[in-house]
Automatic annotation (TrEMBL):
Cellular localisation: Cytoplasm
Protein purpose: Catalyzes the folate-dependent formation of 5-methyl-uridine at position 54 (M-5-U54) in all tRNAs. NAD-binding protein involved in the addition of a carboxymethylaminomethyl (cmnm) group at the wobble position (U34) of certain tRNAs, forming tRNA-cmnm(5)s(2)U34.
Record's keyword terms, sorted: Cytoplasm, FAD, Flavoprotein, Methyltransferase, NAD, NADP, Transferase, tRNA processing
One of the protein's GO biological processes: tRNA wobble uridine modification
Designated gene of the protein: trmFO
Cofactor: FAD
Protein name (Swiss-Prot/TrEMBL): Methylenetetrahydrofolate--tRNA-(uracil-5-)-methyltransferase TrmFO
Principal EC category: transferase
Gene Ontology CC entries for this record: cytosol
EC number: 2.1.1.74
Domain MnmG N-terminal: 5-374
């Protein structure tokens, strides 16, 4: 009879860790404080709720590191990826999901699993006994955060993560906006038309930047300091870095042709991505913001095609908590000072839904193997999972440690492959080929059956 594995947090990482351990035969208790203790970012009581974007980013497993991570997770019977595939929405080359169906599927699978119990209470300390995985993500409660600080002897690190607004589709003026994925990416017509595009002339863009810079912003509490993660910069922060920054970022017009006026090239384009299966909601891509609600409505309605927009959700901002993992965690994702405790997900210093779930997948398997007294081969560093683990458990410079998305810069260099931009396509393919072979070898050593979540 094995011990029970306790998992704190029912987000992407906690849900994936629970699934992996339960599938290995371990009895699991998920401690999810919602709905008894709520957060301002969550809107439901479901497990695996998506609080920011509904995109898992690129699904290209040959030329993109996050697409490779998708591939590895699918090969490892990931519940998160099975749920994403089941609730997939057209999004060009990206993997976007219906957020309601996604979290509902995860919740039902875990609630119905014979090896899983869900407990709705807040855990406020670090237990000295039993096997635990803490996957509390960016919204770790104040009480638990204090316990972590007391144990590690260091202040928690934090940055501000901003949320993009969501617009009702029927309030978008389609005589101005048009459907098109950048460069017409996608294998189906639906994927090639997965985004709505709102064009801007130079004058309209300049007026938008002026309004953005002048808008009233959310003020932080006195003494509250943090840095932004570059992948989630608020648009007003990007605009402050230079008037052309947005036009070369989320508002870049390249790869798009205005269906209403093909001969006129837009100076800038605002893209909206489908947010649910019904196609009734669209989120404004890359428009995370810390503007106050009234200012958001006024500024966003200056965008051509959104003059009469109705918002299902306005943007927001929250503090994101993470560990200085290179100094605190070992290669098994255990807290060095308390090896009965593992951490997983964004709290370890990875950034993004997929990366968080991937760390949950690994933590769940590691904990299950330890509880069963079985050896678990070292996660191969040449895989996407292994590259992330190596980064957070010692590969990164502790003094400058910041949250990181998976990227090919984390992978060990390849011999005999051309460098530079011209050799990039062959180099990325070589990275993904090597990673897939390493990952399949690792899975094969564990004798997995690979039963999928239905």
């Amino acid at each position: 009879m094995t011990q029970t594995l306790h998992i704190v947090g029912g987000g992407m990482a906690g849900s994936e860790a629970a699934w992996q351990a339960a599938q290995a035969g371990i009895q699991v208790v998920i401690h999810e404080m919602r709905p008894k203790v709520k957060t301002f970012a969550h809107h439901t009581e479901k497990l695996g709720e998506m609080v920011c974007s509904n995109s898992f980013r690129s699904d290209d497993d040959e030329q993109n590191a996050v697409g490779l991570l998708h591939w590895e997770m699918r090969a490892a019977d990931s519940l998160v990826m099975a749920s994403a595939d089941r609730n997939r929405l057209p999004a060009g080359g990206a993997l976007a999901v219906d957020r309601e169906g996604f979290s509902e599927h995860i919740t039902q699978i875990l609630r119905n699993h014979p090896n899983i119990l869900i407990s709705n209470e807040e855990i406020t300390d670090l237990p000295s006994e039993g096997q635990w995985i803490f996957a509390t993500g960016p919204l770790t409660s104040d009480a638990l955060g204090a316990a972590i600080r007391a144990e590690t002897g260091t202040d928690r690190l934090a940055f501000f993560d901003a949320i993009a607004p969501i617009v009702y589709a029927d309030s978008i003026d389609m005589s101005v906006a048009w459907e098109q994925s950048r460069y017409d990416k996608g294998e189906t017509e639906a994927e090639r038309r997965a985004y709505l595009n709102c064009p801007m002339t130079r004058d309209q863009y300049e007026a938008f930047i002026d309004a953005l810079l002048a808008a009233e912003k959310t003020e932080f509490h006195e003494g509250e300091t943090a840095t932004y993660f570059d992948g989630c910069l608020p648009i007003e922060v990007m605009a402050e870095r230079g008037r052309e920054t947005l036009r070369h970022g989320p508002m870049k017009p390249i790869g798009l042709t205005n269906a209403h006026d093909p001969e006129t090239k837009p100076y800038a384009v605002v893209q909206l991505r489908r947010d649910n299966a019904l196609g009734t909601l669209y989120n404004i891509v890359g428009f995370q913001t810390k503007m106050k609600y009234g200012a958001q409505t006024a500024v966003f309605k200056t965008i051509p095609g959104l003059e009469n927009a109705s918002f299902a959700r306005l943007g927001g901002i929250h503090r994101n908590t993470f560990l200085n993992s290179p100094t605190l965690l070992d290669a098994q994702m255990r807290l060095r000072s308390r090896p009965n405790i593992r951490f997983a997900g964004q709290v370890t210093g990875v950034e993004g839904y997929v990366e968080s779930a991937a760390m949950g997948l690994i933590a769940g398997r590691m904990a299950a193997a330890e509880l069963q007294g079985l050896p678990l081969p070292t996660v191969p560093q040449d895989s996407a999972h292994g590259a992330l683990i190596h980064h957070i458990s010692g590969g990164a410079e502790a003094k400058t440690f910041q949250p990181m998305n998976v990227n090919f810069g984390l992978f060990r260099p390849l011999d005999g492959v051309r460098g530079g931009r011209r050799g990039r396509r062959d180099r990325y393919k070589a990275y993904t080929d090597r990673a897939k072979a390493a990952w399949q070898g690792w899975l094969g050593q564990q004798g997995l059956d690979g039963h999928a979540a239905e």
